[in-house]
Design goal:
Length: 483
């Protein structure tokens, strides 16, 4: 940790009301690449979460009343600080999460890009005037911030999942309390340090770090002061938290698990498809909710495609994310490795074949070898559950109708990808896929100017884009009479 240029970015306490708060006990933050304890962070309680909410609640009226241009300036200052400290923030992120340093720095730039995007959008919260029924009335629509926003975020993007929620919330005029994943609190706390330096007022951005997710989650989902709850994480936890929010009728946004198909048609540019698949499948060691989960290849090109895929996988370098030229870091913890082991075991017992990888680099290691699995079908758990690991699981299909049916045969609907050079097919398949995001000859779809989000049990709400502010705004109708 001594390698940080600015050691003050390493924080170990929760942050609310513009101040750092210790707790009676601490929890360890572990580097998944080495098993080393890299920090001990204050283990906040449910009572602490209530204090953070009180701070956000107190800060709300003044923040909402600030002119949008002023909020935008502060968000932009925050964004600049993220970029100025990109190397340190990237290093912290790699140390607590494991992804290669280049990817971690990329995530910081990606998170910062949401701050910039919503700083710009803050100034464009337009209303409407609507023709009234009678001449002595006028109908006007204005948009106002919903109020205090609470968020719970996962460990796979410790910076960006917070940045894209907080950016939209703060731009809209809301105040914000986040509970980051306990595995990766350091990136969240470094963001708080930079929010403070940027001059974001006390109580506007607050971070509560703790191991009792259930107790803190209970407060964030049930306290009347929270107007809106935003969650990114697993489908089961999301469903539970949405239920908890129902008691106080909160606005809710959920970004839950995916089960992305990646379809390769026989008219595809196979090399381009390989490039897209490698990015979509192996980024973050396969631990993203938009990662390809099922590779669907048309039978006539299956052999050619899997040969190329095996070659590309063979070139991936596995290692500690802080080492040079590493493509894949460790999985986040032992449970993640066990899950991949179990999915592969079940798949091979049902007839699937491992061509390369298929196990950890060494017993007890969190480094999982990049794996090519063929002979998969949709009934296998490896095709039904999120793998969240570096396994390309290939199945085959005969024609377009079968590809679409297979792709849609899941309760998830986050991201899907397909490769084809036939313009008619591109339109047909893009429209037929029941997903919130579709990459057409493209394996990377995330972008602050585009709406990120899913359909079906992958959740609701959109992050980023011109639509992203709507999740944090109420529509108010004013009827002016007696004119
Ligand atoms: P993942 O599989 O990515 O770890 P989780 O849904 O378990 O997904 O975790 C995402 C976030 O949800 C984390 O911040 C975690 O601490 C939090 N979380 C998990 N269980 C609960 C719960 N019962 N109440 C509130 N938050 C929870």
């Amino acid at each position: 940790m001594t390698k940080l240029q600015d050691q003050r970015l390493l924080k170990n306490a929760s942050y609310w009301q513009g101040e750092w708060h210790n707790a009676d006990t601490c929890f360890d933050v572990i580097n998944p690449a080495t098993g080393d304890v890299i920090a001990q962070v204050a283990d906040a309680s449910a009572a602490d979460a209530e204090k953070a909410l009180a701070a956000a609640d107190n800060a709300f009226p003044a923040w909402a009343a600030r002119p949008a241009a002023e909020r935008a300036d502060l968000l932009q200052r925050w964004q600049q600080l993220l970029l100025e400290h990109q190397d340190d923030l990237g290093l912290l992120l790699t140390l607590e999460q494991g992804k290669p340093l280049a990817e971690a720095k990329g995530e910081i730039a990606y998170g910062a890009s949401y701050l910039q995007w919503f700083a710009e959008e803050a100034k464009r919260v337009y209303g409407d005037t609507i023709p009234a029924k009678s001449g002595d009335q006028r109908i006007i629509v204005i948009k106002q911030p919903v109020g205090v926003v609470a968020a719970v975020t996962p460990w796979n993007f410790p910076n960006a999942m917070i940045a894209r929620k907080a950016a939209a919330a703060l731009a809209a005029g809301c105040t914000f309390v986040v509970k980051p994943a306990q595995l990766t609190p350091l990136s969240a706390l470094a963001m708080a340090e930079l929010a403070q330096r940027a001059g974001i007022p006390a109580g506007v951005f607050n971070v509560v770090t703790g191991t009792d997710a259930k107790a803190i989650g209970n407060v964030l989902t049930q306290d009347k002061r929270v107007a809106k709850f935003s969650f990114t994480g697993s489908t089961n936890v999301g469903k539970q938290l949405a239920k908890q929010c129902a008691g106080t009728v909160k606005r809710v946004s959920l970004e839950l698990g995916g089960n992305a198909p990646f379809i390769v048609f026989d008219d595809a540019d196979l090399d381009a498809a390989i490039d897209g698949l490698m990015a979509s499948k192996f980024r973050n060691a396969g631990q993203t909710c938009v990662c390809t989960n099922r590779v669907l290849v048309q039978k006539s090109v299956q052999q050619a495609f899997t040969d190329k895929l095996q070659q590309a996988i063979g070139k991936l370098k596995l290692g500690n994310g802080t080492d040079e030229n590493v493509d894949i870091g460790p999985l986040i913890n032992n449970d993640a490795c066990d899950k991949v082991d179990e999915l592969l075991k079940q798949a091979t017992e049902s007839g699937a074949k491992v061509h390369c990888g298929g196990k950890r680099q060494a017993a007890d290691s969190l480094f999982y070898l990049p794996t090519l699995l063929t002979g998969v079908n949709n009934n296998m758990a490896v095709a039904q559950e999120e793998i969240f690991g570096p396994v390309a699981a290939v199945q085959s299909f005969d024609d377009e109708a079968e590809a679409i049916a297979l792709a849609n045969a899941t309760e998830s609907g986050l991201a899907a990808y397909f490769y084809s050079r036939d313009i008619g097919r591109c339109w047909r398949v893009a429209e037929a896929l029941h997903y919130g995001m579709v990459g057409v000859n493209e394996g990377m779809v995330s972008n602050p100017s585009a709406p990120f989000g899913g359909v079906k049990q992958s959740g609701y709400g959109r992050e980023g884009s011109k639509y992203g502010l709507d999740d944090y705004l109420d529509i108010k109708y004013l009827c002016l009479g007696g004119l």
